[in-house]
Write a sequence for this structure.
């Protein structure tokens, strides 16, 4: 049952990330998943339940990506941090773009759905539990604030590259500049 649920949520992410929020319907997810009509509505009775499920799955996928990033980082090495984070951003604006587009579509939905806003807040707190200590290890004097700034920069890089892809996209330059401004020399 859990595998079918995950399969449906992955299909919903693809629908959301390739067609946008207006196209996220139970029927569209059934078709994308290659399952009989009604499969999605059996798991997620309402569209709100489906959206909440998609958000939960996105948190799982993104947490796994951040966890992988953490395994590649030597502690306290700013240059390695910049390089690994830049590689992750390139991957998520390239072959992984559907995930970021789906997440951004949910962020827009959250503007009018307080429950989704609350879930996004919880997801950001979970991410901060991982990321704030990492930023502290780089020498930050205010790790929570600096981590929020880093996330804002990353979201901006995602938005700009996905909306208008630049051939010379250089996320490392922006990340490096931010960190040089925030961290002690």
């Amino acid at each position: 049952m859990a595998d079918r649920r995950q399969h449906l949520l992955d299909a919903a992410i693809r629908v959301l990330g390739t067609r946008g929020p207006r196209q996220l319907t139970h029927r569209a997810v059934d078709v994308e998943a290659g399952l009989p009509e009604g499969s999605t509505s059996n798991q997620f009775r309402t569209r709100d339940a489906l959206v909440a499920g998609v958000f939960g799955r996105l948190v799982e996928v993104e947490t796994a990506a951040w966890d992988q990033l953490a395994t590649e980082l030597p502690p306290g090495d700013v240059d390695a941090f910049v390089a690994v984070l830049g590689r992750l951003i390139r991957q998520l604006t390239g072959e992984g773009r559907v995930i970021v587009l789906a997440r951004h579509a949910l962020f827009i939905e959250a503007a009018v759905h307080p429950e989704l806003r609350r879930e996004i807040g919880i997801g950001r707190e979970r991410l901060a539990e991982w990321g704030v200590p990492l930023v502290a290890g780089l020498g930050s004097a205010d790790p929570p604030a600096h981590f929020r700034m880093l996330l804002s920069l990353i979201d901006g890089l995602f938005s700009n590259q996905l909306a208008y892809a630049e051939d010379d996209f250089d996320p490392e330059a922006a990340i490096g500049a931010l960190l040089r401004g925030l961290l002690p020399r």
Observations:
- The two ends are 53 Å apart (CA to CA).
- The chain has one domain: 47-182.
- The CA atoms of residues 93 and 161 lie 7 Å apart.
